[in-house]
Input
Amino acid sequence: MTPTPAALDALVNRFGSNRVRRNVPLAPFTTFKIGGPADLFFEATSSEELIAAFGAAWSLDVPVFLLGLGANILVGDRGFRGLVVRNRADRWTLTNTGLLRAESGTVMATLIHQTVARGWSGLEHFAGIPSTVGGAIWQNLHFLSPAPERERTVFIAEIFRSAETLDRSGNRNELSLDDMRFGYDTSRLHDGREIALAATFQLAKGDPAQMHRVMQENLSWRGARHPWLDWYPSAGSIFQKADGHGAGRLIDAAGLKGYRHGGAQISHLHANIIVNLGTATARDVRELIAFVQDTVERESGVRLVPEVGFIGEF
Output
């Protein structure tokens, strides 16, 4: 759905041209560093501003997208027709019983540093993963359990207690663990009927030295296997696991590590990551994704399914 000029003007008038900017390129706000302009761009600094922005957009039938740190998405070269709300709502509190409540725009790295420094355990497993709180519960953030065993996957759902959301009717809802329907890389929020305003987690007292060990080992593990974002922008893993097979292993077995298309390349370090060599377009990435799908299916019989979100017009 393409918004009308009158509806876009109404949003600008509602919040002011100093808050709602026109034709803002989205590439700088994504980890892929790819993406055309949004018709309108608004930075929300509190839950109240999230509510106001989404309420106004929904009432005017203007498509609206909530942007966190911009990981795990590919924005189209033609950008986004409507309003992009960058989530910078980052207030948080921590009780003396380890109950952590944080607005959905809070950066996970901030919470990890702050909670570990206070001796509270639960978030240290996710060090090095670019995400906000909203993104963490959107995808049920996860990482392998601590070294040396790394025998299972640790999910954010394990410490999750509740989330406050806003639905299209303007209701603020409190969702329980069961309500969230967490799965591997998924949650209830994928339905698109509501957005996260805040989340609450239950942390446990821990040994800061042990937590720092876990963080350092995890960062080292990721650094040895994932391309550095500062040098090789990416969206993280491109494809979902397939029938119990790691997508990266299937891509590697098909001989595609290092394969380049335009400015996009399959990483030499991790075959399930596509990197931007500096000039990649969304078209380059989409075409490379299709090539990988066709090649892997021909070689293994498995059709890979993308896990990245495709946002806007391509």
